[in-house]
Amino acid sequence: MLALSAAGRLPDFLGTLPQDLLRALAGDWLHQARPDQLPPPEPWTTWAVIGGRGSGKTRTGAEWVDALARGDPAFTEDPVGRIALVGETHLDVRDVMVDGPSGLLGLPARGRARPVWSPSRRRVEWSNGAVALAFSAEEPDALRGPQFGAAWCDEAAKWRRPDAAFDMLQFGLRLGARPRNCVTTTPRPVPLIRRLLADPRTVVSRARTHDNAAHLAPDFLDQVVGRYAGTRLGRQELDGELIADRDDALWNRAALEAGRVAAAPDLGRIVVAVDPPAASGARSDACGIVAAGRAGGHAYVLADASLARATPQAWAGAALALYHRLQADALVVEVNQGGEMAAAVLGQCDPAVPVTRVHATRGKYLRAEPVSLLYARGLVHHVGAFPALEDELCDFGPDGLSGGASPDRLDALVWALTHLMLGPQAEPRIRRL
Known about the structure:
Layout: H1 10-15, H2 19-27, H3 29-32, E1 46-51, H4 57-70, E2 82-87, H5 90-98, E3 116-118, E4 123-125, E5 131-136, E6 150-154, H6 162-172, E7 180-185, H7 191-198, E8 202-207, H8 218-228, H9 232-237, H10 253-258, E9 269-275, E10 288-295, E11 298-304, H11 312-326, E12 330-334, H12 339-349, E13 355-358, H13 364-376, E14 380-382, H14 387-394, H15 408-422
Helix pairs in contact: 11-12, 13-15
Protein name: Phage terminase large subunit-like protein
Organism: Methylobacterium fujisawaense
Pfam family, one: Terminase_6C
């Protein structure tokens, strides 16, 4: 066997194997996986799989859970009978972790019975009796009571209540000799990720989008990877780097965390602001759609419904739906670069909705500065977490770009808060959300 370790001998050796064995090897995860996709040597409490978009993180988590449930000796000495699956929402658990292309049900059968997903019970069951229960990070209290021997947490950097959900999960990891977590996520410099990476009981595997290029669509590699490679956003989303706040950014994550609240008070005014793209298409900017409200002298960011590369009908529908859901007072629309068309589209879709046109006479940075000062004074609060929006805020500098791209969510936020906090104040009417 030692002689076979030489690279030059391996093709000759494989050529001597029967076809059925070669097919089995092709489907074997230990044979297919990259080193970063296999569990590191124990002991550890948390295995943090940090990677770019499409780098194979979901497949890594699914294979780990499946191996623990089946008692695969290559992964564990003893099977784990109860496992927690925690995603951003219940839909994310179902559509990504369980039923997605790289989820538990999408793994190769390898001649074994596949696990069974019971949607009504939110559980995956294996033929040996092992079960995995699905939980949403939006409901940390649901993790009270159940107990597990292992947990898979997917995209924890995007969770709306990351610390509360992760901490509550730890109280339930009390079965077996070595309860442990696998956290698969594209990194963001949020407190939970910083805490996990600094914990000596955490081991880290890293992967870039490019490492999994053989399994990704060529158009994705050309259009997305090609566009963002080398930028700050690309280093985070493609290379899986934890990017610290920019020294010259108008916002920082500490201030956003300090002002974060779980719910808004009764609001006197609510607006939905739209920063429309100049065109639609594969390479067009996103349409920023952000809602905010005001109570007294404080503003509350309520929703980010921004859409990427959407048609005018699609983003107009999204903006109007948000307007009606929140019972807003007005739609604020920037009319530079196609915005007049945007206002016309909104008017055609719902003529009863009042549209307030705003025109940019200064650059993005100058428009954003007064709004960032409101944050610095503690007058703006995010109701929950808005990862994509907050990434833009904390990566926005004097060049007027965020991550090398147009900050469309930020623009919509600036228009909403400028209208609510820095412009003439309309007569309020109290709404309870």
